[in-house]
């Protein structure tokens, strides 16, 4: 497993904010779509990669650099030789367990506060584990939680826009705390809905049962509702499962797959096969 501290941050690039748009209403958790422009031709980021953002900040240990990774949320493009990247950012905060004080997330607050024309420092690109299979008959079960949908948005768009002639099933399960957070698949910004015409693509969403509490998103229930189809997909040797999102949802997903497979042993054996065949990948935070 690769840790954030292991990544090379010595190679850095300047990126200019070209667009920044809030996707959620003002009285809800802030989630923004930000488009960056990198002028340096040495920065080549692909749809299956992530990139880092370096933020200089003051801490009790003096000046430090805060490094966070972000997935590419759309197919990277070139304009006048410059790379254009789209990212999703959720403004985060946390309560200190010791003093009970509320602190704003360093990286997310910095990015959400940027304005058009501001310049930030990016690193990378870095490899993501989500690879498009060479077999166009392969089946894909994609599970994205919250902003974890970002890499799959770019992933699905790339398959239907660039790979084309995809014959395997693609099932995207995505979730959020509330309907206001169903990024990119709502009425206003529903660019993925254009792929509903594709015979191979379907998307299903799930919400938290209590959006103002810490209850996990009910993705497990959404998956179990399609148990028959998921079980059929898992019966094929060319099925892949890719997961991106919150750590706390993993346990419920595991229970859902156990229920679908019929026993813990059957699911553990099938998951081991997926991992051994490089057909299982996850990015958990």
UniProtKB/TrEMBL annotation:
Keywords: FAD, Flavoprotein, NADP, Oxidoreductase. The keyword NADP applies. It comes from the Bacteria. Its cofactor is FAD. InterPro entries: FAD-bd_FR_type (IPR017927), Flavoprot_Pyr_Nucl_cyt_Rdtase (IPR001709), FNR (IPR015701), FNR_nucleotide-bd (IPR039261), OxRdtase_FAD/NAD-bd (IPR001433), Riboflavin_synthase-like_b-brl (IPR017938). Pfam families: NAD_binding_1. Residues 10-132 form the FAD-binding FR-type domain. Signal peptide: none annotated. SUPFAM superfamilies: Ferredoxin reductase-like, C-terminal NADP-linked domain, Riboflavin synthase domain-like. Coiled coil: none annotated. Gene3D superfamilies: Nucleotide-binding domain of ferredoxin-NADP reductase (FNR) module, Translation factors. One of its GO terms (molecular function) is oxidoreductase activity. This is Ferredoxin-NADP reductase. It comes from Aquiflexum gelatinilyticum.
């Amino acid at each position: 497993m690769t840790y954030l501290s292991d990544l090379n941050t010595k190679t850095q690039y300047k990126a200019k904010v070209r667009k920044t748009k809030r996707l959620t209403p003002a009285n809800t958790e802030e989630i923004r779509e930000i488009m960056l422009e990198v002028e340096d031709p040495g920065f080549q980021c692909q749809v299956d990669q992530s990139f880092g953002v370096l933020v200089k900040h003051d801490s009790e240990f003096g000046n430090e650099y805060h490094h966070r990774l972000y997935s590419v949320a759309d197919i990277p493009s070139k304009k006048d030789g410059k790379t254009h990247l789209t990212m999703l950012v959720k403004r985060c905060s946390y309560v200190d367990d010791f003093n009970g004080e509320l602190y704003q997330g360093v990286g997310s607050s910095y990015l959400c506060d940027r304005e058009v024309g501001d310049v930030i420092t990016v690193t990378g690109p870095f490899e993501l584990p989500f690879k498009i299979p060479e077999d166009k008959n392969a089946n894909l079960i994609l599970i994205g939680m919250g902003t974890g949908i970002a890499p799959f948005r770019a992933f699905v768009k790339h398959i239907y826009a660039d790979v084309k002639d995809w014959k395997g099933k693609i099932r995207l399960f995505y979730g959020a705390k509330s309907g206001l957070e169903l990024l990119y698949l709502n009425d206003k910004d529903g660019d993925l809905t254009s792929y509903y015409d594709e015979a191979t693509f379907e998307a299903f969403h799930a919400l938290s049962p209590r959006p103002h509490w810490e209850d996990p998103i009910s993705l497990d229930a959404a998956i179990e509702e399609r148990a028959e189809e998921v079980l059929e997909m898992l019966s094929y040797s060319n099925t892949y499962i890719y997961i991106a999102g919150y750590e706390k949802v993993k346990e419920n997903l595991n229970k859902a797959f156990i229920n679908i497979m019929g026993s813990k042993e059957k699911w553990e054996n099938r998951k081991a096969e997926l991992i051994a065949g490089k057909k299982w990948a996850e990015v958990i935070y």
